[in-house]
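Dear Dr. L.,

I hope this message finds you well. Following up on our conversation about the binding site, I have prepared a predicted three-dimensional model of the protein together with S-adenosylmethionine. For your records, I am including the exact sequence and ligand specification that went into the calculation, followed by the structure tokens. Please feel free to forward this to your student if that is useful.
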Amino acid sequence: MQSLYSKGFEVIYDEMYQTFIDYNDEFEFYSTVLRKHHKDEVLEVGCGTGNLASYFIKNNFNYSGLDYSEDMLLLCKSKNPSATFLLGDMTNFKLPSKVNSILITGRTSSYLLTNKEINSALKSIHNNLNSEGIVCFDFIDASRFFKEIKGGVEVIHTANFNQKKYERISFFNTNSSENMMFNWSAKYYQIENNTKTVIAQDDSEVRAFTKNEWELFLHLNNFELIEFIDRKSYAFDTYVVVAKKI
Ligand SMILES: C[S@@+](CC[C@H](N)C(=O)[O-])C[C@H]1O[C@@H](n2cnc3c(N)ncnc32)[C@H](O)[C@@H]1O
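The resulting structure of the complex is given below.
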């Protein structure tokens, strides 16, 4: 199966997601949260191809990024040569020095499949934050999303980038055998001269959450929950969490 974050697909990810996600709006939203808490330094975990990085760097945040895909990071670095990008896993990382805030966007929390991985990620985040540092991340809200996809739902997303056309046909279905998981099968197409060619296929199991779960995970890992912000994202019902290290 083609990996979505490496072996050439990172370029397609980068082009498609610039249609799916309005990164200017993402920056406005997340920078407002950080500024409200007087933070001008940020580590973005799961920084992907650096689309959000560019905005933080342009706006004079002391920005660094971390991702576990070398190919995503190479693209990130080519677009943002002056910034620091680190190869690392969010469930176990150590920065050269602690930071004032950590951001995880694009529903990257969905890749924390087990409670053990969630606790490890929160422990790493805690260890890499200065005292009173904040963590801010989004998650797919199981309470609403699972009602929408119960029984299986097909969703089509299209993207246009520099004369290229992409289409992604997703099939979502609940799978609550362990935690609030769901199955996401996706076929990716490139469309040229009215011809549709499959460029990738991905079948994965990812995790959604309820607010109560995060309240507890944060509490057990020594974070004080500041707020949940209800924020619809391009394909999912999403909440953004803001929490402070205690
Ligand atoms: C959905 S993409 C989001 C990328 C970016 N935040 C955006 O909004 O465009 C998820 C990113 O998280 C990275 N990722 C997934 N699991 C990770 C882990 N355990 N540690 C570090 N990065 C991870 C992937 O390589 C990918 O770049």
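In brief: The CA atoms of residues 165 and 191 lie 5 Å apart.

With kind regards,
A. P.
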